[in-house]
Specification:
The chain has 9 helices and 11 strands. By secondary structure, it is of the alpha+beta class. It folds into 2 domains: about 1-90, no CATH class; about 105-295 and about 300-350, Alpha-Beta Plaits, CATH 3.30.70. It has an 8-stranded mixed β-sheet, sandwiched between helices. It is flat.
C-alpha cells in the first residue's frame, strides 16, 4: 500500500504548481476542488515523512544498540511509535469518498406518527443546527412546511463549511445521517402519559459546487408557480411566489415556498434539484459497483431505520454500528460527534478490510 505514496508526492507537487497559477483561482469550482485534494495529500505526506523519520531512527538505534545501552532501552518505545505512525499512514491511504469535502443539503421529513413525527423533525433540526454551530459550519433554511403544533412536515436546510480538508467537510460527517430516525417518548399530544413510537426521515445530499457541474437544459424542466401555504393549508401569500420544478428526464420534483420572491424560490429549488440529480447519479454508479461497498455503513436504502432516540431511558442507539449511550439529552442538543464518529470508524474499518482482501 505504501508504494503508492511516491505517486501521491508527485501529484502534491503538481498541485502546488497549479495552485500558484492565478488562472486557477479565477475558476471558483476548480480552485475549491484542487484545494481539497491538496489538503488531503498534505496530510498523507506529513504522515509519510513522520513514518520515514521514525523508521530511520529505529534502524539507527538498532544498529548502535550493541554499543549504547541507553539506545537499546529506547528501541521498544520506538517500535511502538513506528506501529502507531504506520497505522496512521495506512488509515490516511484508505480511498476516501470523493464527495467528503462537499457541503450538503439536508431534508427532514415527518413520517409515521403524525404531529409527533413533525415535532420530532423540529427536534432533529435543532440537533443538527447546534452540531453545525459547534463545527463552525453555516446553515441556511431553504424551505419548510410547518405543522399545526409548530413542528415540521418537511424542512430543507443547506449546511456549509469553509474547510479545505475533505476530512473536515460537511458530507464527510453528515452523509451517515440519511435514513429513518425512530423516537420513543410520551408525545405532547398524549393525555394519558403513554409512550409512543414515531419515525422521522432524513435525506442528505452532497451539494453541487458549481451550477455547471450539473447542466440542466430548460427543455428538461417543467416549472409551475403557485401560492405559498402554511399550517393547515391556509394561504400565507397573495402572490404566486412558490415554485415547483420537475426534472422531466428523472421525474425528480422540487417545491420551494420559503421566500416571498419567486426568483429566490426558483434559485433555491435549482440548488436542491442539482443536489438530488447528483445523488441520483451516485446511486446509479453505486448500484453497479463492487460488492465491497454494499457492507459499508452508509447504505443507499433511505428506508433503513438507522437510529433510535429513547427519551424515557435517555438512550440513543445507532443500529448500524452498535453504538449506545445514555446521554440523549446532550445529543439532542448537538453533542452528536461520538455518534457520527462511530459511523466513520465503522466505515473506515470496512474500507480497510476491503483493501486487505483485494
Amino acid at each position: 500500500m505504501f508504494e503508492s505514496v511516491e505517486a501521491l508526492i508527485a501529484e502534491h507537487q503538481e498541485l502546488q504548481v497549479k495552485l500558484g497559477d492565478p488562472a486557477v483561482h479565477a475558476d471558483a469550482g476548480m480552485s475549491k476542488k484542487l484545494n481539497r485534494r491538496f489538503a488531503q495529500l498534505s496530510k498523507i505526506i506529513a504522515a509519510h515523512d513522520r513514518f520515514v523519520a521514525v523508521t530511520d531512527g529505529l534502524a539507527a538505534a538498532r544498529e548502535m544498540a550493541g554499543d549504547d545501552e541507553s539506545l537499546a532501552q529506547e528501541v521498544p518505545g520506538m517500535e511502538a511509535s513506528l506501529a502507531e505512525v504506520r497505522e496512521a499512514l495506512r488509515s490516511l491511504l484508505i480511498p476516501r469518498d470523493p464527495d467528503d469535502g462537499r457541503d450538503v443539503i439536508m431534508e427532514i421529513k415527518g413520517g409515521e406518527g403524525g404531529e409527533e413525527s413533525a415535532l420530532f423533525a423540529a427536534d432533529l433540526l435543532r440537533m443538527y443546527l447546534y452540531y453545525a454551530e459547534s463545527r463552525g459550519w453555516k446553515t441556511e433554511v431553504l424551505d419548510k412546511t410547518e405543522s399545526d403544533m409548530g413542528g415540521f412536515k418537511n424542512i430543507q436546510v443547506a449546511i456549509k463549511s469553509s474547510a479545505t480538508d475533505p476530512a473536515e467537510g460537511v458530507w464527510a460527517s453528515l452523509k451517515y445521517e440519511g435514513g429513518v430516525h425512530r423516537v420513543q417518548r410520551v408525545p405532547a399530544t398524549e393525555s394519558q402519559g403513554r409512550i409512543h413510537t414515531s419515525t422521522t426521515g432524513v435525506l442528505v445530499f452532497p451539494e453541487v459546487d458549481e451550477p455547471e457541474e450539473i447542466e440542466l437544459s430548460t427543455n428538461d424542466l417543467k416549472i409551475d408557480v403557485f401560492r405559498s401555504s402554511g399550517p393547515g393549508g391556509q394561504s400565507v401569500n397573495t402572490t404566486d411566489s412558490a415554485v415547483r420544478i420537475t426534472h422531466l428526464p428523472t421525474g425528480i420534483v422540487v417545491s420551494m415556498q420559503n421566500e416571498k420572491s419567486q426568483i429566490q424560490n426558483r434559485e433555491a429549488g435549482m440548488r436542491v434539484l442539482r443536489a438530488r440529480i447528483l445523488a441520483r447519479q451516485q446511486e446509479e454508479l453505486a448500484a453497479v459497483a463492487s460488492d465491497a461497498r454494499k457492507g459499508q455503513i452508509r447504505g443507499m436504502d433511505r428506508s433503513e431505520r438507522i437510529r433510535t432516540y429513547n427519551f424515557p431511558e435517555n438512550r440513543i442507539a445507532d443500529h448500524r454500528t452498535g453504538y449506545k449511550s445514555y446521554n440523549l439529552d446532550q445529543v439532542i442538543n448537538g453533542a452528536l460527534e461520538p455518534v457520527i464518529r462511530s459511523c466513520i470508524d465503522a466505515d473506515e474499518a470496512e474500507r480497510l478490510a476491503a483493501l486487505g482482501a483485494s
